Amino acid sequence: MEGIELLKRELSQPKDIVIFSHRNPDGDALGSSMALKLYLEKMGHTAKIIFPSEFPSIFTFLPKTDEVVIFDFEKEETTKIIEHAEMMFFLDFSSLDRIDKIGELVIDKKVTKVHIDHHIDPEPIADYVLSDTTSSSTSELIFDFLNELDSNKHMNEDIAKCIMTGLITDTGSFRYSTTSKTFHVASELMKYNLDLNYIQNKIHNSHSEKQIRLLGHALNKRLEIIPEYHTGIITLTKKDYQDFDIQRGDTEGLVNYILMINNIKVAALITEQPTIVKLSLRSKGDISVQELARDNFKGGGHKNAAGGHAYAKLDSVVNKFKSILPFYIKA
């Protein structure tokens, strides 16, 4: 990170620090944020995490998740924390609109800001930036940052567990977006007495009966295959949300099941929310769903994992998605 020596000096005295990550936080958002919080506390700082919305309950096995402040439920508390902040960290998002209305509260705040992220096209929102689009996850970058900060002097099992959770979730258990460096970081983390089977079980084998029944419904009743474009689409309607009492996090990972089908190269989960239609996109190989989301659905992300949204009816969004496939995928 450019300017790391200056940042080290700023962090040499105890500070009130706030860590932000994006709406609908996933394992990488939570893992990287919690790892940084725990590390900063070891250094003598006061560190708080603020998310715009709640995170999936499967991640409550990580330490101190009960201390996370959720803006949707705690607006006054969020405002107070930001008012007292002496430093801010922005993790796992490329622009302030990814933290919704919180962005309006922090944009003019005159404190040191640090941005650590692996998404494409980061906006200039901080004084110090660690950005690497080749990194598997923001959690991997947090490991790098802590190493630059003081050679991971305060690393322990809890912090390593948080970083490993981010690595596992953002790489699909090391199936994609990995480099030799990713495996090197994972190897270093294993030195801290991690129980990898425990972590994997908590992430992948902690679903509710409702989530499994929803999965069956989605694959049986809501899956459409477009063979000429090697694409699969799952749509979930408002009625599905009511019938299955779908809550935040219940659809996590659903889109990945489409890619398990032979010859499918693009997967889309398109969900009808109360006021918006959201798209979660995945792909294999050289097909960029990031470009598709950016160009057509005000979204973005990574080459093989992206998302977007539209203020339109579900049918029209699905039809638009189908109509643009020829421009991104060869028949």
Structural overview:
With 331 residues, the protein is of the alpha/beta class. The protein has two domains: 201 residues, inorganic pyrophosphatase (n-terminal core), CATH 3.90.1640; 120 residues, Roll (Diaminopimelate Epimerase, Chain A, domain 1). A six-stranded parallel beta sheet has the order 3-2-1-4-5-6, with helices on both faces. Strand 1, helix 2 and strand 2 form a beta-alpha-beta unit. Helix 2 packs antiparallel against helix 6. The longest helix is centred in the first third of the chain and has 16 residues. The mean pLDDT is 96.
C-alpha geometry: globular
Looking at the structure, the CATH topology of the largest domain is inorganic pyrophosphatase (n-terminal core)
Which class of secondary structure composition applies to the elements?
Answer: alpha/beta
CATH architecture of the largest domain: Alpha-Beta Complex
Number-wise, the strands total 12
| Order of adjacent strands in the largest pleated sheet | 3-2-1-4-5-6
Total domain count: 2
Please tell me how large the radius of gyration is: 20 Å
Write out the CATH superfamily name of the largest domain: inorganic pyrophosphatase (n-terminal core)
Straight-line distance between termini: 43 Å
Can you give the mean pLDDT? 96
> Please, how many helices?
12
Topology:
Blueprint: H1 4-10, E1 16-20, H2 27-42, E2 46-51, E3 69-70, H3 75-84, E4 87-91, H4 102-106, E5 112-117, E6 128-131, H5 138-150, H6 157-170, H7 180-189, H8 196-204, H9 209-221, E7 223-226, E8 231-236, H10 238-243, E9 266-272, E10 277-283, H11 289-296, E11 300-301, E12 305-310, H12 314-328
Parallel strand pairs: 1-2, 1-4, 2-3, 4-5, 5-6, 8-9
Antiparallel strand pairs: 7-8, 9-10, 10-12, 11-12
Helix pairs in contact: 2-5, 2-6, 5-6
